[in-house]
Amino acid sequence: MVRDAMAYCGAMPYRLLLAGAALAIAINARADTPNARADTLPGPVAQSLQRAGIPATAASLWVQDVDAPRPSTAVNASQPMNPASLIKLVTTFTALEVLGPAYTWRTEAYLAGPLAGGVLDGDLVLKGHGDPKLTVESFWMLLQGLRARGLRDIRGDLVLDRSWFEPGNVDPGRFDGEPLRAYNVAPDALLVNFKTVRFLFAPEGPGRAVRVIAEPALANVELSSTVRAVDGPCGDWRAGIRHEVRAVEGRTLVEFVGAMSAACGERYWNLALLEHRDYVHGLFRAIWESLGGALRGGVRDGAAPAGARPFAVAESPTAAEVMRDVNKFSNNVMARQVFLTLSAETTRLPGRADRSARAVQTHLASRGIELPELVLENGSGLSRQERISAAGLGKVLVAAWRSPVMPEFVASLPLVGYDGTMRRRLRDHSAAGQGHVKTGLLAGATGIAGYVLDRNGRRVAVVFMVNHPNATAAHPAQDALLRWIHDGRS
Length: 490
Hints:
Blueprint: H1 2-9, H2 14-32, H3 43-51, E1 59-65, E2 73-75, H4 88-98, E3 106-112, E4 115-116, E5 119-120, E6 123-128, H5 136-148, E7 153-154, E8 158-161, E9 197-203, E10 210-215, E11 221-225, E12 228-230, E13 241-248, E14 251-261, E15 267-271, H6 276-290, E16 294-295, E17 299-301, E18 312-315, H7 319-328, H8 332-347, H9 353-366, H10 390-401, H11 406-411, E19 435-442, E20 445-453, E21 459-467, H12 475-486
Parallel strand pairs: 5-7, 6-8, 7-16, 8-17, 11-14, 12-14
Antiparallel strand pairs: 1-2, 1-21, 3-6, 3-18, 4-5, 9-10, 9-15, 13-14, 19-20, 20-21
Helix pairs in contact: 1-2, 3-12, 4-7, 4-8, 5-6, 8-9
């Protein structure tokens, strides 16, 4: 700021230049000086943590005006912390800069044989490029496109080319022992519909059956239910329902037994039942047959024909749109897809986590952001190993604000009090609608990070992380911090 002022003034007398420089420094110093000590937690935050039984040593805080040269508040800011889903900010910012906001993922269909009279005498090959949002609707459109181009009968196999990402032996239950939970779905080059089945439970009244409907209905999944509706308050509606998943003659049988309160109304339960290949196969058959098509063979992994042109292509939403889903709803598998795409695109080798970690570090270093404490396992925050400091993440936020992709990045974050994971937070405070803030939550780790517009019109970047066994009790302290910033840090 001082250098720009001197260049602009040209031949202005030297003493006036010095006076102007001194004034600019004084203004910056005042702007960077909080009402409380810069190395202590704001009073409302400290009091809230104390009530929650969380020591100040378990918290890490960093606050900086986006146009200031240094933070106004930094407490334990250099301490590496488990950021939980806040690490998605690093992944998505890097992706927007490296891939570009208009980047799209392609899913390609190839014919491995001649097509005549609607009959393919060979295999149909689907090649994935890691699309994070290849939903049922998008997959249906791809298959409808095949039918519109004249394909009806596939005499060979459905072949899946998943080579864009390096295959890994990922145990979906390794993180928390819940392998069927949707958030534990592993990434895949041909991820379709997040590999998840959404079961609708619709009670028809006390003493009557609860209808259970699978969405989507997969051709290789059979559903059985004896769940009954009962009287009483809703409470934890899933507590009275058990499910069993087992293989039966090449099909997967899902059985629900138990009871739920009729007062609950319709509820949904998302489960990841199948391996990636079986899920694609089951969904393909269900949709393809509904379109009047036939598949004579089975399913297997393989490679797209070398040098061939795709018969049909499905293109994802843009990266800018994908990052909104990743950050606003903290979608883990989408974040992992984006993370692996970084190495697949930059190295032209199959996407792999360690390669993507290096790609992120390399890009941040090229932007002058050195993060020696940064540890990346999968880029989503669903990890006990990932680490970053509040100061490090703060540097990323400030760099993102000054980046050409700033509008897309900021718009991807939850709007306080309105949407995403912040839709229920601070709804009755004037800070509602005045901040874009990402949340993070794991057992023992919680945090917020993003931008707040204070009542004086200043945009402030904030990072607040807590690592403690009682971390989930820190949400009131997070809200107290956001109020404190919005109210002018007084």
